[in-house]
Amino acid sequence: MGLDGFVFSDETSDLSDDEYRSACRTLNAIERLIEDRTRETLSNPEEACFFLPDEGWHPESQPSFELDGSTRNAQTSYNLLALKDRDVIKKMRLYCHAFTGYQLATLEFAVKRPWVSKKLPDNWDDTLRRLAGPPDQSVFDYVRVSNALPEPLRITPPRRFGEIGWLWDGKIINSDTESYLERLCLMQENGVLDWLTKRQHDNGTINIVEIGGGYGGLAYFLSLIFGENLQYSIIDIPESLAFSAIYLSILLPQAGHKICSQATPVSGQSTPVFTYVSNTLCSLWVHEAPTADLVINTLSLSEMSDRQIEQYCKHISKIIDKTGIFFEQNHQYDHQGPGGIPPAHFKNLQKCKSDILGDNYPQRRGQANLWVNPTYEG
Predict the structure, then answer these.
(1) pLDDT at 363
(2) Residue 272, CB half-sphere, CA atoms under 13 Å: how many?
């Protein structure tokens, strides 16, 4: 048991012809959502202030330092994926640093590197062989935390989409793996996972909604934990849905996947399925969607304007109704974030603590909280 080496992207980037065509269909659907958003922005400018990207997701934001002064951001990553280049799709994880803050392609936090704005060379693994030294701290943190958790929670990413990392007892570990393990640890220690398991046993299925699903990592891990009797919806800007919809639909083709659009019914699902909802359709969708057992947001409310946070919290309040829980983990910067809104929308069920992670866990990724409606009956 212990370190088994390093897994490189050429070892984890198989993509069949059918999977490539599926990814292209997803990107075509996302293109239509963006076109719909453009029309909606012109016809409904008041609503547009909610669903247009803001802060770090705004098309003009500059989260990276570029020597040539160019503007590169999450939109840059989407534009690269939208080219439908098979090599980019099959190594998509190397282009996901907008979601996690960690640049997997260089094994470094994204703020320390220029944005990956062009297709990486075919021989990028040669560069990684020069960059990949001894395991970094995330590997040791992962081992410590995972050893304290039940076996089903000792997650490892699939060997797909160019995932790379140190191999420890057969598991690929990198900073992103450790980040997702932290969230599962917080949910486990604060009773969320046991509570969901009981509701799944009592009701036959559970319904989870994630606001801002990133590239789909957390959704994937939760689907492994809860199996087939799970409904999972991701609400996000279309550019981000491109990543999560490709990732999840190819990894979990048997689950059923639906991208909501103006041309398809906006309604709750009666069978377990992954549903991808553009935030332009959020106001319509929440009126039809079934009550969620759990709503999740990690690290993106703090990237929004106060007005956007207010609107999302209104939607979340309706989605969880009287029995659901809202789990969020966010840093708070120049606004109060979700913690400033509970008098109108939520009450704090509890601040999440962790004996496993230690008292200093909020310093890196923020304080996690469980929120409920004032009429909570759970």
Answers:
(1) 84
(2) 15
Lowest mean pLDDT among 66-80, 303-317, 339-353: 339-353
Task: Report d(CA 233, CA 268) in Å as an integer.
Answer: 10
Gap between the Cα atoms of 292 and 327, Å rounded: 12
Q: Which of 46-55, 154-163, 193-202, 204-213 has the lowest mean pLDDT?
A: 46-55
pLDDT digits (tens, 9 = 90+) for 255-283: 999 999 887 766 655 566 899 999 999 98
Mean pLDDT of 96-106: 95
pLDDT value of position 41: 86
Query: Average of pLDDT values for 9-35?
Result: 98
> What pLDDT score was predicted for residue 96?
97
**Residue 225 scores a pLDDT above 90:** yes
With beta carbons less than 8 A apart as the criterion, state whether 298 and 183 touch. yes
Which residue segments constitute the domains of the chain, with CATH numbers given? Answer: 11-128 (no CATH), 135-179 (no CATH), 183-372 (3.40.50.150)
Q: What is the 3-state secondary structure (H, E, C) of the chain?
A: CCEEEEECHHHCCCCCHHHHHHHHHHHHHHHHHHHHHHHHHHHCHHHHHHHCCCHHHCCCCCCCCCCCCCCCCHHHHHHHHCCCCHHHHHCHHHHCHHHHCEECCCCEEHHHCCCCCCCCCCCHHHHHHHHCCCCCHHHHHHHHHHHCCCHHHCCCCCCCCCCCEEEECCEEECHHHHHHHHHHHHHHHCCHHHHHHHHHHHHCCEEEEEECCCCCHHHHHHHHHHCCCEEEEEEECHHHHHHHHHHHHHHCHHHCEEECCCCCCCCCCCCCCEEEEEHHHHHHHHHHCCCCCEEEEECCHHHCCHHHHHHHHHHHHHHHCCCCEEEEEECCCCCCHHHHCCCCCCEEEEECCCCCCCCCCHHHHCEEEEEECCCCCC
Q: Specify the pLDDT at position 147.
A: 96
- Tell me if 259 sits within 8 A of 241, measured CB to CB: yes
